[in-house]
Every structure is written in C-alpha cells, then in structure tokens.
Design a protein that fits this description.
Elements lengths: L2 H8 L8 H4 L33 H5 L2 H7 L12 H18 L9 H7 L4 E6 L19 H13 L2 E4 L4 H8 L5 E4 L4 E5 L2 H6 L3 E5 L5 E5 L6 H15 L6 E4 L4 E4 L8 H12 L5 E6 L2 E6 L5 H11 L8 E7 L5 H9 L4 E5 L10 E3 L2 H20 L4
Parallel strand pairs: 1-2, 1-11, 2-3, 11-12, 12-13
Antiparallel strand pairs: 3-4, 4-6, 5-6, 7-8, 8-10, 9-10
Bound molecules: magnesium ion (MG).
C-alpha cells in the first residue's frame, strides 16, 4: 500500500498542525554557535548566574507560558462540586472532539493492521508516561510487571526499541529487557545491532560489545558534551537546592530540572535560574517537557533522527516492507512523529488524556491503553503465525 495515500486516507480532513506550538520558541534555543563570539565552548562566567536577569526575562520571553503549557494539570473529580463536574463534562466533550483528529489506536486497530499487511512492524516506544505512569518522583516511575511481559512479547514478534530522555543505563535498569534496543538521552546514546555501513558513514558511530559479549553499534553524537553536561548538572543542583520540590537529574548527554513537586508560585524562579545558567553555556539549550526543563546540547539530533538511525541499522528503511510505529507522550516525541509523517513511513501514536496539537496520527489515553494496544498487536501476530503467515 502506498504510504502517502494511506496516510491521507486516515484523516479525510486533516487539521493542520499548529506549527507555533510544535516549533521551538526562539528564546528556548539558547545561543547558537554562530551567535556567540566565545563559541565553541561555554561563555565566560563574568556575567555569572549570581547577577541574575530580572524575573521579567522569563515572563517576557515566553518561558513561563511554555512551562505552564507543557504541564497541563491532572483532572480530579471532586465529589459534590457541580462546577467541577460541569468542567469535567466540558473537558471530556473537548477530548472526544480532539479524537476526531487523532483517532484512538484501539478503535483504529483494524485499520492499523490493514496498513501493516505484508509489512514488518518496527516498534518504537517512549518510556515515561508511555510504558510507566507519570509519578511525582521520577526515580519511582516503574513499569508494571504486566507491561514488562507485554513489551517482551512485542519484542518477540517485532523489532522494538525504547527511545527515552533518560540515560540509556537508567532506562535499561527500569525496563530490564535484553531483547530490546535502547536509545537514551533523547536518542543521543544508542545501542543498535552491528552495522559496518553505519560505522563508516557516521563518525560518532563505533563498534563495541555489550555486557554479554555481543557485537553492537554504539552511537553517541554528543560525546564531546559529556564534561559540559556534568558541570551544568552540578550547577543546576546548586541553584535549585533551596527550591522545595525541585529535582535535577543527570541523563549523561542531557540534564533535566523537574518542577512537578514545586509550588506553582516558584515556577518563575526556577525558570529564571535555569535561564540564567544557560547564558553561560551557548552550546546548550533548554526544551520543555511535562513539568520538566530539559537542558540539551545544541546539536542536530533528536528522537526523530534516532528513529531514522535505528531503522537504518536494523535494515528497515524500505517503506514497502516496513511499518514503523512510534508511541510517546511528550513534546520531544514530536520529532519522531514528524519524521514518520513527513517521510510517509509509519505512524505516530500520541499518549494523552488532554487535547494537544501533534504530528502523530493516532492517540491512546494512558499507559493502560498503550498496554492494551500492544497486546492486540501481539495477539494479532500470534494468529498470523498460527495460520502460517510471516
Ligand atoms: Mg514520555
């Protein structure tokens, strides 16, 4: 099936994606190398973070708006509150109208397997909010045993990769499945199958061996940033230590500042301080996730590029034979959705319980629905195999 026509046929009246929401606000891109007379490398610390800009910096350049927009509140049903019930009714109505644009992957399952007919599905999965629930403490974002069993079954039938913002080691510790491929730090740290062709074409690609002695390809396009990320991580810990609830994580090739447990009245302060720190690092930028500020190297690499890299290293680039599916919930997953949409090769599935503009084609409400969808895929493939199909 021609992917271009099949994409078009899914959404008879596609609503254009609101680019202003998907494109990075220019103020969040940090400072490009060309912009800074001191690049490459970080700036002098003479206008250090101690001489902070005014709080208006954060308000006027859109950081605060972006922090709020990236962090929709969770809905709670309060008994006996008619106003609350009315508001939830409205939200549900709004959600269902949004689903006309991003149909449920569960309701569209027959359509999806029809698109996958005679093709090999390649499965790409985000971790937080996709395989695990979003929890207050990111160290406690564990996936359930039933989800682990499901993902193991998925990997038995389809090449499967986890692409996460966490460090590769951390996400492996949480998932604990050796059957998968892993891309950590938003795709900046990938372990894939051995590929001499890729190692020749990518200078940051090296042949290596994993813990079990298997030959693998290790790809780390931001390797030179390791000392800088380590340094900025320590700085971020220092500047947020007096803000109750703030948590900083080192993801090896990027760092994140979580404000999930920070009082909203302190969001401006936290945004301002991170903003000020980045003034010293022109080769780093900040992006917004769900109640988290991600500090990342300014390099032309993201989850979308990681998907392309993995497809290439797995020998799955032929759109006539392969159907990539990417399931994710965060802003950073949009890069992957976009790659699939623009190449007419596969489909993004957004995990969201609220209305969001997206480059995905389908939606799932939460990790429970993700598990149901994955189980449907496994059952379908089992039946296919039983009947002698590939
Ligand atoms: Mg996520």
């Amino acid at each position: 099936m021609d992917m271009k026509s099949s994409h078009a046929s899914l959404l008879t009246d596609p609503v254009p994606v609101n680019k202003s929401r998907l494109r990075m606000h220019s103020s969040l891109l940090g400072y490009s190398q060309q912009d800074s007379p001191l690049s490459p490398g970080k700036c002098s610390r003479s206008n250090s973070r101690k001489s902070t800009g005014s709080v208006d910096d954060v308000r006027s350049n859109g950081w605060l708006d972006a922090m709020k927009a990236s962090s929709p509140p969770r809905k709670k049903l309060l008994k006996g509150s008619s106003a609350q019930v009315a508001s939830i009714d409205f939200d549900i109505e709004d959600y269902f109208s949004w689903m006309l644009e991003y149909p449920s992957a569960l309701d569209s399952f027959e359509k999806i397997i029809d698109l996958a007919k005679n093709k090999k599905i390649a499965m790409f999965l985000d971790y937080d909010g996709t395989l695990s629930p979003i929890v207050d403490d990111p160290d406690c974002a564990f996936m359930s045993e039933s989800m682990r069993t499901t993902v193991r079954s998925v990997a038995k039938y389809f090449p499967t990769a986890i692409i996460s913002g966490r460090s590769r080691d951390k996400v492996f510790d949480l998932v604990k499945l050796t059957e998968l491929y892993y891309a950590g730090s938003h795709g900046m740290d990938i372990i894939g199958p051995i590929s001499s062709t890729l190692c020749k074409s990518h200078p940051d690609c090296v042949k290596s061996t994993d813990q079990e002695g298997n030959e693998i390809t290790l790809f780390q396009p931001a390797r030179e940033f390791l000392p800088m990320i380590d340094e900025v991580f320590r700085t971020l810990v220092e500047i947020t230590k007096d803000i109750e609830g703030a948590k900083v994580e080192n993801h090896k090739f990027c760092a994140s500042v979580h404000y999930r447990n920070v009082e909203e009245t302190n969001w401006t302060t936290i945004g301002q301080r991170v903003h000020d720190v980045l003034k010293d690092y022109p080769r780093l930028r900040s992006t917004h996730g769900r109640k988290v500020l991600e500090v990342r190297p300014v390099i032309d690499w993201n989850k979308g590029k990681a998907v392309e890299f993995l497809l290439e290293s797995l020998g799955l680039t032929d759109s006539n034979d392969v159907l990539p599916l990417y399931i994710g919930d965060d802003t950073t997953d949009e890069d992957a959705f976009k790659v699939l949409r623009e190449s007419n090769h596969g489909y993004g599935i957004l995990v969201s319980s609220v209305r969001k503009e997206s480059n995905a084609f389908f939606s799932l409400r939460d990790p429970n629905e993700v598990m149901k969808f994955l189980q449907l895929l496994v059952n379908w493939k089992r039946q296919e195999r039983k009947h002698g199909k590939k």
